[in-house]
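Case study 2.
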Amino acid sequence: VQLQASGGGLVQAGESLTLSCVVHGSVFSINAMQWYRQAQGEQREKVASITSDGHTTYADFVKGRFTISRDEGKKTVYLQMNNLEPEDTAVYSCWWPQYNLWGQGTRSPVSS
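Prediction:
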């Protein structure tokens, strides 16, 4: 089983971006998943999470701007990022608690 994160890319402040984390392999369901980010020279920080019953939580610095969602049929978890700010520039990674598995990061720079 593997995770593949994608969707990052250079955007301007105020624009939107959607990241995807796809589960590759034979699994019955994704259940819970989390997104993290790490800016250059900074510690990795949790951005958002979704539980098996669909409950979502967000870091204060993205509340109201980011949305995490899950499509079990596509075995994909999304992170919709709106109104991006230069401070959102980071490498974003997904983490699957059920298997303690990390997806490779996807870089999302935001220019001012």
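The first strand starts at residue 2 and ends at 6.
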